[in-house]
Write a structure and sequence with these properties.
- Helices cover 39% and strands 15% of the residues.
- With 150 residues, the protein is α/β, with parallel strands linked by helices.
- It has one domain: 3-Layer(aba) Sandwich (Rossmann fold).
- Helix 4 links the parallel strand 4 and strand 5.
- Helix 1 packs across helix 5 and helix 2 packs parallel to helix 3.
- The longest helix has 18 residues.
């Protein structure tokens, strides 16, 4: 599984971060998970700015994106990613608590690859993350430039 890509998790809720990391680790679904706690930090990571200037040049294999974020909201992050030729091929999965149709429609209009509403119950949340991880880390073929092949 050394060819698994990196996952960028953009989430401001510490409990959801912990649950997501636990599920991904338990099922060994990523070589590395990078956590950004707000939209600005996610963009800094993707554009290799600030604390991330020395990160490797390969893109994440998938980005798990919350919508309700401080500093820069998830829809704006999604809009910037999909408008950038170097980033637009990164698969983006919105992982949010928002059931609002306007958020779902806006996400799909901006080019999101999947929209998943976070289950409230612990085991359902872990299973949802596990299934997302299996699909995006094992089943899906990531775009060129997102996985370093050994």
């Amino acid at each position: 599984m050394s060819n698994l890509g990196r996952i960028l998790l953009v989430e401001d809720d510490p409990k959801d971060v912990e649950l997501t990391l636990t599920a991904l680790e338990e099922y060994k679904l990523a070589n590395e998970v990078v956590v950004a706690r707000d939209g600005e930090e996610a963009l800094d990571y993707l554009y290799r700015r600030g604390n991330f200037t020395a990160r490797s040049t390969d893109n994440p294999a998938v980005l798990l994106l919350d919508l309700k974020l401080p500093k820069v909201d998830g829809l704006e992050v999604l809009q910037q990613i999909k408008a950038d030729a170097k980033l637009k091929l990164i698969p983006v999965v919105v992982l949010t608590s928002s059931h609002e149709e306007k958020d779902m429609v806006a996400s799909y209009k901006l080019g999101v690859n999947a929209y998943v509403v976070k289950p409230v119950e612990f085991h359902e949340f872990v299973n949802a993350v596990k299934e997302l991880g299996i699909f995006w880390a094992l089943v899906n073929e990531p775009p060129p430039g997102s996985v370093k092949k050994n």
